[in-house]
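Researcher: Last one for today. Full complex below.
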Amino acid sequence: GQNIDQPTEMTATEGAIVQINCTYQTSGFNGLFWYQQHAGEAPTFLSYNVLDGLEEKGRFSSFLSRSKGYSYLLLKELQMKDSASYLCAVREKQAGTALIFGKGTTLSVSS
Amino acid sequence: DSGVTQTPKHLITATGQRVTLRCSPRSGDLSVYWYQQSLDQGLQFLIQYYNGEERAKGNILERFSAQQFPDLHSELNLSSLELGDSALYFCASSVDPGDYEQYFGPGTRLTVT
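Model: Here's the assembly. Have a good evening.
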């Protein structure tokens, strides 16, 4: 089975940096993903980590520690358009390549 | 635009009815996934098909079934609908099961009254 926890809501201001944490408990870990989802729209892929460490992609970075069952998504130079839900998801070997999602963190960016 | 298409965009139906949701994956993608998103449960994996064969099953109810056709499009059939089945249903596709990125369609919003 799996359990994925992330904060329900976060707020930040434009230009700031925000870190969204995700903890997970799973057997047969086979990768951690972050998706962004604007209200009423489809999730879009942000990042993928399968080994420990930091992956950087522009303003977004994602970190993974497999031994701690922990990941975070770091968003820099926040913009109003970053207001969205951020979904942490894990892939388990025994579940094929399907993604098991957390309930998401709703980020509100204000000016 | 992810290249994944889903029809219809919206669907309103009554309890006890049956509906079919359709998904066309991105050109060249062999794997199709169905997810259900409701306010209280978040995004939940239902079922995966790869090149016409069922590959993995998640939290899919027995009242629900799916298939993937030779042209790789997929259909999700929901029967004996209940109020609690009201949700956004997303289809996603990837090139093959090892591909780490899944591309999501725009979803079908199902409302059961």
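Chain A touches chain B at residues 31, 33, 41-45, 48, 50, 87, 89, 91, 95-104 (CB under 8 Å). The CA atoms of residues 60 and 75 of chain A lie 5 Å apart.
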